[in-house]
Amino acid sequence: MTADKLKSLMSILLVATAVLHLVVAALGAPADLRLPLAAFGALYGVIGVLLQKGGRPIVLAATGAVLLGIVLGGANYLQNGGPVTLPVMFLIDMVVLVAGAMWLTKASKAP
Questions:
Q1: Are 33 and 25 a contacting pair, CB within 8 Å?
Q2: Which residue in 11, 28, 42, 55 is deepest, having the highest Cβ count within 10 Å?
Q3: What is the tens place of the pLDDT at every residue in 32-43?
Q4: Contact 69, 38 (CB under 8 A)
Q5: 61 with 44: CB under 8 angstroms?
């Protein structure tokens, strides 16, 4: 997969998970999870859109944001449970991390 396709994949997945985060925050999350889910949804949406034109800094921001989301969301999920959509969000996050790592590897090799 080319670096451009990896970045497009990351962008699509981040926008998709942003929508999912926002829908879950609005419709199905416990009250204490609504704000964090909405905040991460907004963050992922912005980063997903910026990835379409951005380079290394935005890819690093995307991987950092997703890693933070996995750590914070995962810890909360393990302690308190949560919406059934969270495992789907974590799976998307993992694919974004792998794609970001692959993009960084490919981009660093390019002349």
A1: yes
A2: 11
A3: 888 988 999 999
A4: no
A5: no
Instruction: Please indicate whether residue 45 or residue 70 has the higher confidence score (pLDDT).
Output: 45
Give the residue extent of every domain in the chain: 3-109
Q: Tell which wins on pLDDT, 31 or 91.
A: 91
Residue 85, C-beta contacts closer than 8 angstroms, at least 6 positions apart:
20, 24, 28
Number of Cβ atoms within 10 Å of the Cβ of 64: 13
Cα–Cα distance for residue pair 111/107, rounded to 1 Å: 9
Whether 86 and 37 have beta carbons less than 8 Å apart is answered as no
Residues in the chain, how many?
111
State both tokens at 89. Answer: 């969000």
How many angstroms separate the first and last alpha carbons of the chain? 18
Whole-prediction pTM: 0.88
Sign of the CA dihedral running 82, 88, 101, 8: negative
Percentage helix, strand, coil, to 5, in the chain? 85, 0, 15
DSSP H or E stretch at residue 78 = helix 56-80
